[in-house]
Amino acid sequence: MKISARLSAPIAALAVALAPAIASAHTGIGATTGFLHGFWHPIGGIDHVLAMVAVGLFAAQLGGRALWAVPATFVAIMAAGGTLGMAGVALPAVEVGIALSVLVLGLVVLAGRRWPLGLAMALVAVFAVFHGHAHGSEMPIDASGLSYGLGFMLATALLHLAGIGLGIGLGRLAATEGGRLTQASGAAIALAGVVLLAGALA
User: Fold this and answer.
1) Residue pLDDT, tens place only, 53-78
2) Are 118 and 144 in contact (CB under 8 A)?
3) Are 100 and 49 in contact (CB under 8 A)?
4) Exposed, middle or buried by CB within 10 Å (0-12, 13-18, 19+), for 181?
């Protein structure tokens, strides 16, 4: 089965699941504000963008069911972490956890090793809690929690798809060069993670 066919079902499911949220975000000012704030929150932080793209690259490297299972796991656990953040539940070292996610996920992509699906899902789930908590704890006071949460879930899913698309695109190059370029992308992400971690620990 071609990659595009394997991806069509999870993408369609994601679109169906998020369609009501997108529609409801336009029914009132408060909902729109919450949705847009949530949507732009992951995109506005380079740490979130790099980690989400790395998750997509990782999923593309693994292929098969990982193409949808790894990103879906991240989004689901991130939503749980976001709920904790919205509720004001404290989570220690959130910024350090986010910076570590960029570093570790970059190194994973750089290594280019095959991971068992369950272990790959567990790895991204750990980091998803930190990203979700950061999104949730920074929700505007007057925003709708549901609209805000659906906003950052959609943005995260789109960033994952961008990473998957990048990984697939690189993979279509010559076998050796495509792998090297993907690993080079992981190296760049990991290097950025070092810088982010140093800033979080400073």
Assistant:
1) 999 999 999 999 999 999 999 999 99
2) no
3) no
4) middle
